[in-house]
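Model: Ready when you are.
Researcher: Fold this.
Model:
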Amino acid sequence: MKTKQNILIISILLISKFAISQTIDDKIFTAEIELKNNNFAKAAMLFSEINDKQKSNEVLQKQALAFYYSGNYIKAIGDFETLLNRNSSLSSIYLSKCYALLNEKEKSLEFLKLHLQNSNKESEATIKMDTAFNNLKNDKEWEKLWLKDWYSTKEIELAEANYYFKNNRNIEALENLDAFLSINTDSHEAYYLRASVFFKLEDYKNASKDVKNAVELKKNEEKYLFLQAEIAKELKKYKIALDNYTILLKIDKYNFDYYIKRAETYSLMENYTAAIEDINHCLKYNSENSLLKNAKARYQINSGETWDALITINQLIAKEPTNPDYLVTRGLLYTKTSNTNSAFKDFTQALDYNPNIGEAYFQLAQLSLKEKNIENACFYLKTAIKLGVSKANEAFEKNCQE
């Protein structure tokens, strides 16, 4: 009898623990949405409630950032001071910014010096351009601080390459990075940056090689894994992309962008059920997000759930009748259900609102080919190609060559 009672007590405790965990998870996901929507005060309040129940460096850090961006610098300072020994680089720069915004120049400079002593510090240009330091920029002590060489030659060279990259001077960025990597062959930062340049230039093969080196040199770095996934998708290596997004969600299970990106990848692999599942998870905490609803409708169309998709997309169009993305989605639905006239109408109307939607031109071309209107189809395909729709090339070569 006692054994049964013990089992019952243990079961109740486990269920209670699971329920509490679920409640905390729900609050964290909700807080993340508030952060994403720039509702920083609401996010800070939610993170505070979570911290009262479950102490966590990650949650405390997000709470501190929420307080900072909501303008509550006093509370942000308290949190960042607690985190100082756990993440010196992040905490020191934000403490410096908080004190600068409170016009406490001496303390701001003290923490800025501490930040500059970190190996993982922000670049000089980033710090100097940060508006949080506007109160300090004409101060003699500020000028005196920058007389010291805080950055190594390697850090300066990487910062210069990054400057070129951010300002679309990609050839100069590549030249700098090629020279840098010829000497510093173990620099994961340089490989990642060069991969980013190649990715921007749509040289996905070279980007893939470089990001692979970066990932191997520094395991589980989120931005490296994310870029590798994005490159893999462009190379149609969807399994690699899917694996990376799944790893990223193990690192940060509260990151909605990872769920959305994984859903896109599932869709490319034609696993629409899994794609819808990931989008539904996001909609659970952000139920009125139109972009998520539109994405879900597209996955439903491909999975054959056309009636549910039509209800969703008609609701979106009723709210935003001039949004071309929703019209394109409904056009795809009508195409799927062989309602050709309605599909033509929606794609054409979408182009009236935005004449640069390559997908709409491609779909109009497909409809024109079905109706044997080759002249119109070739016009639409040519326009789609100009707008960067790569899949239009094959159709153009097949149907429009003299």
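Researcher: Now this one.
Model:
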Amino acid sequence: MHRLWLAFGALFGLTAVALSAWAAHGLSQRIGPVRLASVQNALTMQGWHALALLATGLLAEGRGGLVDAAGAAFVLGVLVFCGAVYASAFGVPGVGRFAPFGGTALMLGWLLLLIAAIRR
């Protein structure tokens, strides 16, 4: 599964850079400064967790278990947290309430990675 985490890390990194460029060049005129700040927060989280997934992929090779669970939590967390924040910033009603679940999944991923590192 380590290649899956590497692939998600690369995909999330690619889309974070692309969305950052888009946000830097005219997005504020479309959604305003408050919503733009939300998008930038989600981009930061997505970028950091893209790197976390790359590290997870490197650690997971031949280990599996908790490291793979951390990778799954990171993917789920990015999709739910960042997805909810992006959708909310673009005016999709009611999805912002899912962001805390994604944030919890991201924290769980870090906890699982910590436990995996200690057990090594």
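Researcher: Key takeaway?
Model: Residues 5 and 71 are 6 Å apart (CA to CA).
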